[in-house]
Amino acid sequence: MKYLLLKHYRGAPTPADWVPMDQWTPEEVDAHIQYMSDFAARLEEAGEFVDGQALAPDGAFVRYDGEGRPPVVDGPFAETKDLIAGWMIIDVESWDRAVQLAGELSAAPGAGGKPIHEWLEVRPFLAAPPTVTE
Amino acid sequence: MNEPLLRELVPAVIGVLVRRGADFASAEDAVQEALIRALETWPAEPPREPKAWLVAVAWHRFLDAARAEASRRGRELAVETEPPAGPVPATDDTLRLYFLCAHPALPGSSAVALTLRAVGGLTTRQIAAAYLVPEATMAQRISRAKRRIAVLPLGQPGDLGTVLRVLYLVFNEGYSGDVDLVAEAIRLTRQLTALTGEPEVAGLLALMLLHHARRASRTGPGGRLVPLDEQDRSRWDTGLITEGVAILQAALARDRLGEYQAQAAIAALHADAPSTAETDWAQITEWYDELLLLTSSPLVRLNRAVAVGEAHGPRAGLAALADVRPDLPRYAAVAAHLHERAGDLRHAADLYAEASRAAASVPERDHLTRQAARVRQLLRS
To answer: How many structural domains are present in chain A?
Structure first.
């Protein structure tokens, strides 16, 4: 079963004692980055990693505006918009395993070397229809 | 198996098929199929004459495809027999392939893909993996590109500028996937210097070699980005630097300066310096001035501000930065660096944090976050 682990720039609940990353020490920044890359490597080894990507914070809403007209572009995003920072797709045996992995990812070290307790969104993929239906 | 040799043969084999009467698109498809067969069978049964083997297999593939097409359309096949190959102008053929694959009518990503396949002899799968797109997408991109150039009038002079831009794009794509695009770009540019005496081609080759020479020192543990002033210069490849500088000097002696030669000259000055402090920043600034006359690129203006800051102090650098568009990527990073050197740490830290949010890649973002953290730590101590 595939699950999407979503990381937010904003829009997720803010953990208590949250310190923005640029206010950590350089060593704490390094430790955090190392943890994240080790985590992905471990998932790859376990045969559970599918994909991971990071997104820039900018962008815009876009929609069709009728025949012969250019699309409407609504941006940059309002400060209140839920903003996705990136994702990891995992392919695991169960929801419980997905939750366990999200928990580990959220334990990445931050200021003072303590886990950041970041809230991650975990979303199951809709699967392809099964071959056998009865 | 000698895969590099196999790849080098690809443009020449396409040339043979085209001279025998095949159209470019079909010839290129047939050679790609022969290439895939070769990759599968050569390890077990290496041919005695690799090129003849490729020509024979590709020609059969071409005839099969052409027959299928002819019967589908109920037409006679025009190229049934093998015409004599005649004298072999392989050099011109390969040069023509460069021009065709990097045709100005093609979008950059298509020109890159087609060049890597037809001139570079890579398989669609390898190109797709290098650019992290599905193989079917890459195959489609390549066949659309071929359809696009098939309708162009023949005999147009090629545009060397777009060829060089395509090779530069490949070089800059870097090191993802199992195919080393940097090495591939260097190989294709080196091959191009043998086909044309244009000093800009040599300039681009020199630029690539001089940057490639610093490759080992440019990333640290975990893929972290190491900026120029922190690189371990003992790890720079002096062989590549010597070669790059020699190629550049020969090109500059021709007295037809272009943007790649000017960029290579800047890279050569860096390569020549034992440290950032001992770098000839005044001369680098002059090269940026030359480069501005040649391209008037905003990015060059930004890099020039860095050089001015090193040559004449951070205040002069900030003054030079005033002429640069602030919406450029890396603008905030450069401003942060100059403000830090000018002693305005608080402003520098904010700018580094802003720059990290505007970064175009994860390693760059991590690096700038680390810079922000470092300056904030200085402020606390």
So the answer is: 1
